[in-house]
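INTERNAL TRANSFER SHEET
From: sequence group
To: structure group
Subject: non-reducing end alpha-L-arabinofuranosidase

Please process the attached sequence and return the structure record in the designated field. Keep the field labels unchanged so the import script can parse them.
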Amino acid sequence: MTDNNNLSVSRRRLLAGSATLATAAWLSPAFAANPGLRSTIYTQHTRPPILPKIYGGFIEHIGNLINHSLWSETLDDRKFYFGVLEKPEPEPTDRRARMAMMQKWLAVGPISAIRLDTQNAYVGEHSPVVALDASQERGLVQHKLAIKSGVPYKGRIVLRGDGAKVTLRLSWGEGQSVAHKISTTKKWKTHHFTLNPNVDTTDARFEIVASGKGNFSVGAVSLMPGDNIKGFRADTLALMKEMNCQILRMPGGNFISAHDWEDSIGDPDKRPPILDPVWSAVQPNDVGVDELIQFCELIECEPFWCVNTGFGDPRSGAQLLEYVNGSADTEWGAKRAANGRKKPYGVKYWAVGNEMYGHWQRGHMSRDHYTVKHNMFVDAMRKVDPSIYIVAPGGFVDEMTTGQGIFIEGQPEVKVGSERDWAYGMFKDSWGKFDALGTHAYPPANKRFDLKTGKLYDVDLTLNEWVHQMPDRIRTMADAWEQYKKHFPKLNDGQVKVYFDEWAFGFEDNLKGALAIGAAFHEFFRHTDFIDMAGFTMATGWLNFNRTQSQLSLKGLMFQLYQQRFGTIPVEVTGNSPTPKPKYPIGGDQPSVNTGGDVYPLDVSAALSEDGKLLTVAVVNGTELPHSFSLSLDGFKPKNVGTCWKFTGPKPDATNLLGQAPQIGIKESAFNTTSGSLAVAPISVEIYHFERV
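Return from structure group:
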């Protein structure tokens, strides 16, 4: 994600800007020819369809990731987990700590005038109480707030006191401010207010102050831009809807193993703020069960809910399912109805546990113990709703070997059927208790796994090798799947699937990272017989954003390009230039065959539309040189003119910064299908449409 203070660029402006890029030299169609490179596409040799779920996403509460990207709350620590400080703390430099960083409340006036009431706290462990003085304002303030012009800010505050008149003041610049006054009562009362600063700034201040006699207490406070939609930011919500994501896994991730879902339902101001021990971050529990599922409804996406099988227990899992899917006359369905949602959500997809093979998960246990726990969860949940689709944590041997399993000195490679082979245990002891196994992959850039030592080491990779690190990890999982089918022949009937429900590579948003996404898609397309779903980490990576501005990232644009332009029925692609043989020992992160296909150094994939009238050919060129290749279409006669979309830019590290003119664009053009060859730009992804005569 990008976080800067430049003006935002709308999707429409970005596309308009990309049109002006068409004249740039790096988009020129005049390329050097490579007459020896040939490919044939056999359109009658098809594979199972590409499901829309392959373009899915994954999000979790890592620090403030969701709170500061999708949620519209302007204030941090709005329920005073950290109390009130006398002076600002130094900002952390560690990346993980910065992800968890929140603006803290500071004292206005002497810190000695503020105490934390633990006996009559409104929510959480304590609530601040301010002792007043007639000679000065006292209270609390939060600095460095981002606000935007053009919308009023809607707020609410829970107060009590002995009649003190509290001023809510939003300030910026040199003495500019807007304010609202509220009189307190002896009992806690929620007050609503509106402030209209009409300014763009990242350095606003929000004060809760009063002067005079007596005291006042603050239970909770909220401030949101008035254009929020059910609490979500209007801008990032619109972009996520534009992404047309068909399935979204949430709310964890590692986060889920220590999360109590009951803390995240009901009145948001009464949900306790908690310290998430997994990411060492305070969560206000504002974006909870109802909010996240309703977010999916707003963007027209299938929710894929992850259940806590770490510190959680089967009864809690069943109660969560009843809260989500039960009718309003059930115990937990009635609680959902009381919280404002009478109609059940009808969530179909459930991840029962996350990476429970990993020692980092809260509640981790041995494989043989965990399969018993998994079965108990599934039995309890299917009693509530037998129609749900269950995805269990896989832990295939490739994943267990390359850092996800329990390392044993001298035995770095996890073998199929061994005690450390988690997926084998799930197949053996939990067959029938899941519909799919989940797998995760985050290959570290420019590193390889040493099968002898079990450690990562640095390697010098060509750009094309770098682009294919992610596809290689997908292929290692496919190699593992072939081994499992020999041990469990029932896998050959195709009923059990794989959900690649967490994957990412090259977290920077640049052109080469976008190419890696394209190459990963190609590898997914080669295994549609058993890979049904993929969840990109994080789904918010489809956006570049700060606290008030956003635009689609290059990753988002690459997802859109394939989802909108690529076909549905994969067909066979052959060529006369296979990828080089593996130069590393097979196993771990090295598949049996290097990915990319047989038109090396290009990676070519093709698919028909559902009605067979359109053939799409996608080419990833992970080199800095232009290439051309001759193309034969077997069983498909196209019209003379087709359409091409070229996704490219000036250099591998090029990016589109938030609010600045784009360096990378998509050029649409017509091409002559009768030429018998395609010319491919350097560092590019290109999709060609051939219409059947």
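Handover comment: The first strand starts at residue 38 and ends at 46. Residues 192 and 402 are 53 Å apart (CA to CA).
Transfer complete.
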